[in-house]
């Protein structure tokens, strides 16, 4: 991968919890404008790896670099300021606030927020609300939204920060087929129009295979395969790791 286009690099990342080695020697790279998938059977270490990359866990060993800056052991706020924003499996919004105000908070948390004019900030909010299909819900309280719209709100908040890299943690859970298709179209716009990169941790294998440029496969805390969707689908190593799992690869 071209070093000039590399946005994030994880080198030999490991995490040990007392006697348990949850992640061992993970190497991962994400380039500008790329959609990268991180998949694996249940208990493979996806959440731990995700937390290491976003600063919610400090690695026991290894090095994390974002935009050429060593972020090993950095806290989430420092990682965010470097241009990486993440969502959470169970929602990334403030339930008692309106859709508009939630997205505003995401916008204010952006790495360039202090230099963004008020008019531009309003435009960013409108763009996020429109892009994720939330127009007409601006004054709705987040907790009262249907589940699908709550998922989309979490993504809109992350987008409003205008990061270089968005890490989506199980974003498609609970979405119907139409919502999934629409969300994947939005992801394509994020990379093509806004030049953002995406790291996608997701159990919807059909969606992962249709949207990702490259995929990392985790098993027992180690990367066992890296490649394009087509090579992942036909890998004996990957298929063996998924035996017994209810996934259609």
TrEMBL record:
**Start and end of every ABC transporter domain?**
8-245
Q: Does the keyword ATP-binding apply?
A: yes
Q: Name one Pfam family in it.
A: BCA_ABC_TP_C
InterPro entries documented for this protein: AAA+_ATPase, ABC_AA/LPS_Transport, ABC_transporter-like_ATP-bd, BCA_ABC_TP_C, P-loop_NTPase
Keyword terms, alphabetized: ATP-binding, Cell inner membrane, Cell membrane, Hydrolase, Membrane, Nucleotide-binding, Transport
A cellular component term from Gene Ontology for this protein is:
plasma membrane
Q: Quote the EC number.
A: 3.6.3.-
State a single Gene Ontology molecular function.
Answer: ATP binding
What is this protein called in UniProt?
Lipopolysaccharide export system ATP-binding protein LptB
Q: To which species is this protein native?
A: Pandoraea terrigena
Q: According to the entry, what is the taxonomic lineage of the organism? A: Bacteria, Pseudomonadati, Pseudomonadota, Betaproteobacteria, Burkholderiales
């Amino acid at each position: 991968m071209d070093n000039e286009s590399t946005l994030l690099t994880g080198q030999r990342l490991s995490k040990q919890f007392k006697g348990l080695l949850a992640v061992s020697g993970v190497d991962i790279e994400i380039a500008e404008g790329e959609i990268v998938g991180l998949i694996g059977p249940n208990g493979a270490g996806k959440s731990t790896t995700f937390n290491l990359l976003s600063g919610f866990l400090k690695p026991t060993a290894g090095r994390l670099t974002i935009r050429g800056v060593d972020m090993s052991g950095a806290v989430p706020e420092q990682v965010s300021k470097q241009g990486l924003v993440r969502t959470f499996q169970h929602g990334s919004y403030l339930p008692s606030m309106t859709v508009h105000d939630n997205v505003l908070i995401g916008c204010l948390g952006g790495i360039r927020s202090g230099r963004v004019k008020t008019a531009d900030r309003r435009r960013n909010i409108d763009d996020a609300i429109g892009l994720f299909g939330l127009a007409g819900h601006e004054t709705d309280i987040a907790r009262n939204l249907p589940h699908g719209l709550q998922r989309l709100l979490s993504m809109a908040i992350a987008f409003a920060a205008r990061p270089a890299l968005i890490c989506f943690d199980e974003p498609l859970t609970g979405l119907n087929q139409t919502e999934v298709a629409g969300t994947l179209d939005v992801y394509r716009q994020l990379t093509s129009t806004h030049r953002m990169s995406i790291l996608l941790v997701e159990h919807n294998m059909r969606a992962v295979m249709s949207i990702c440029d490259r995929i990392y496969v985790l098993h027992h805390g180690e990367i066992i395969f890296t490649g394009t969707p087509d090579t992942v689908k036909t890998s004996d190593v990957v298929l063996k790791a998924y035996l017994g799992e209810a996934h259609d690869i």
